[in-house]
């Protein structure tokens, strides 16, 4: 898809985490499909995978996003 091949110019101070190269980059060096961001700081970008994992756990445990109703103590 041509959409993913387009490279955009980032704003100064934007940081990204490249999933392909597993490194922090200033400005979008890699295609959007291969990166998380933008982040406000290098430290935030460096913790992108940890942040994503924490959010995934929150979403997995959110009863509003699960098909099954939340378990209650009476469900034995």
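Sequence proposed for the structure above (76 residues):
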């Amino acid at each position: 898809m041509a959409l993913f091949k387009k490279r955009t110019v980032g704003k100064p101070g934007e940081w990204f985490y490249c999933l392909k190269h597993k490194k922090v980059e200033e400005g979008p060096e890699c295609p959007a499909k291969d990166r998380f961001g933008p982040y406000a700081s290098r430290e935030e970008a460096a913790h992108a995978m940890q942040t994503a994992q924490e959010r995934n756990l929150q979403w997995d445990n959110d009863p509003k996003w699960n098909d099954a109703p939340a378990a209650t103590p009476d469900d034995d």
